[in-house]
Fold this sequence. Notes:
Elements: H1 2-15, E1 18-21, E2 28-32, E3 35-37, E4 41-42, E5 45-48, E6 53-57, E7 60-61, E8 65-67, E9 72-76, E10 79-80, E11 84-86, E12 91-95, E13 98-99, E14 103-106, E15 110-114, E16 117-118, E17 121-124, E18 127-131, E19 134-135, E20 139-142, E21 145-149, E22 152-153, E23 157-160, E24 164-168, E25 171-172, E26 176-179, E27 185-188, E28 191-192, E29 196-199, E30 204-207, E31 220-222, E32 226-229, E33 234-237, E34 240-242, E35 246-248, E36 255-257, E37 262-263, E38 267-269, E39 271-273, H2 288-310
Parallel strand pairs: 2-5, 3-6, 4-7, 5-8, 6-9, 7-10, 8-11, 9-12, 10-13, 11-14, 12-15, 14-17, 15-18, 16-19, 17-20, 18-21, 19-22, 20-23, 21-24, 22-25, 23-26, 24-27, 25-28, 26-29, 27-30, 28-31, 29-32, 30-33, 31-34, 32-35, 33-36, 34-37, 35-38, 36-39
Antiparallel strand pairs: 1-2
Amino acid sequence: MKIRTFIATASLVASGSLVAFSGSAQAALYTTCVGDGGAVTVSNDLVVPAGKSCTLTGTRVKGTVTVEAGADLVAAGATFNGAVTVEENAYLDLTDTTVKGALTTDSAFGTHLEKSTLKAVNVTEGFIYTVDSTLGGNVNTAAGELYVSGSTLNGSLTGADNQYSDVYDSTVKGALTVEGNALGGVFCASEVYGAATYSGNADNLQIGGEGVLGSCAGASYFGGNLSVTDNTANSVLDNTIVRGGLTATGNDPVLVVGELTRIRGAVTGETAAAGSSGSARKAEPQDRGADLAERAAERAAEARADAHEAGKSRL
């Protein structure tokens, strides 16, 4: 039986669709994907080789998924039972896809998640553009661009040292932390049930309502304490209910609090009323989501074209 197993494995290696690395009692196997893959089940790990493109439609992967440096993976209606790793300058695009393990990216070009379900997400550099998705674990982003719209996050959300961290029409059931963002952030028509912290951000912060980055339809809600501290950003808090207290210390300029804001707990620090002298100035409206959507669409289109040119992937 062992001899027959070895011969079968060697045959698969020769076909180019399955690679084996031996040296221990059990060989580690993975399948490479280059080209277009369909509704099949991959029983082991899946790798998109460096610089290559793979599309998956209705594919199930029982192992882990790795998108190597400069590679692209575009998946729709897929299920990944293990973790997903996206390497330097690689791109991941998921629609109607379930990832049962953690998603980790390191210096990737970007990640686009739409109508998908994931657990924990850890992003370093690159953008993460999440639309109408459910994220079951904690989401941590650093040194990139964070944009979340129409989504539910069952854990915490952290945007640290990003260019910006924007949250629209979404629910965060854990804590929210936005710190050290060079272009600040937006919190619009959304809810946070844990503590929320905005600290050390520059440029502009818009927390609910009409603000420095344009209008926001719909009220926002903070179920715990809200801390807005040590920001050099022009900061506005409006059309928001804060169930806990508000801490607003060390901000220069001071935090502007609009007339539609309701704070149930104590207010600590210095705030200014909207329209008062020295309050935050109005900036030109920005649509950072549209910019990310365009960049994601361009990279996904290139990936699909490259995969189609490569032909059907032997999964």
